[in-house]
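Re-run requested by the PI after the first attempt was lost when the workstation crashed. Everything re-entered from the original request form. Ligand of interest: zinc ion.
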Amino acid sequence: MASLDATTRVPEKRVSELLALVRERNPFQRSRLEALGPEPALADLPPLTKRELVEDQERHPPFGTNLTYPLERYTQLHQTSGTTGPPLRVLDTAEDWAWWRGRFAHMLTAAGVGASDRVGLAYSFGPHVHFWAAMEGLREVEAMAVPLGGMTSVQRLGTLADIGATAVWCTPTYALRLAEVAVEQRLDAALQSVQRVICTGEPGASLPAVRSRIEEGFGATCIDHAGLTEAGPFGYPCLEGGGLHVDESEFVCEILDADLQPAAPGQRGELVLTPLGRTGFPVLRYRTGDVVVNSDEPCPAGHQDRWLPGGIVGRTDDMVVIRGMNVYPSAIEEAVRRVSGSGEFRITFYSEPSGLDEIKLEVELPEGAGARGLQEIMRQQLGLRVRIVPVTPGVLPRSDAKSRRVVDERPSRWTEG
Ligand SMILES: [Zn+2]
């Protein structure tokens, strides 16, 4: 019988209860477990990919077979964004939804958000779970939720000023955009009451240069947290040490390398999670696609939960192999944000007629500034040869949702998975 990475604090009893429950009632999980023989342990299960859940749903529309209870028990339906494949529908029972609410409240409490806060939600409420779960979490900590959907940035700034908002919740991309609009429209005063920017939906807020850009723009603390539709909200901020903690009271956490073995200390790996309290749509050893550094350092505040000092550092599906090197667009973004005055950017991967893969980085830079320094940062820190194309500020497309800043123009080829 295999065992999990010893550094994980596994609540054994809850794990065995979850395994027993799904073996009895969940057709999808039962077939996975039965294939492993009698009484398998969690660590015996091959890590689960989103693709397997999507394929199950395609074979058994509309909800698939990863359901522990009869359909009438489920009250919430959300779906993944489908940026890397067809969307996945995910159902929650009332009990599971209460679990989401509790986990979001736990995160908000760690972030210092409570009853005296007025929180502007600067997004439109689509089918994605984190918008709705954010509302639930705010209710649980008795903060005031202020929906800002369907508004222009100027209208949002006006509303934030009128109500004296203490926090704004949005994607890091949009936080940068909102701060930019405030300056352009001479509405900087609108952000004066804001003490916290809670970032969601993208890993950007974990990147030190993105964080400091947001913190400068708002004169506020940038709060990161992490979660995903399939596994739930698993990461809460460490205000003292920075980065994130994995909520190990509710998630079994592993960090695995490319061979799905525990990543060595100090190495990057993929976060693999087993949520223990969401039983209606359970995922066991779920491959989140989030890349983190396996640190064995305790955080400076002495919190017990596993600390990710750099938060989420990238996505496995964002990673591109260029001339044999693993390239994370987030690392390029971090370098861009370090250049003072830099604006929007676009990364294009392309092939030269010779067949060699190349990287082009278009970046908005003030006249005459930064391009050479940026090239040096890329070369020295990332070991990348990047063609930098400075463009006039304001010309690259802006988006409020998950940013679309990476273009892959290389001919299609075999990829893993
Ligand atoms: Zn901590």
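Saved to the shared folder this time. Confidence is low (pLDDT under 50) at residues 413-417.
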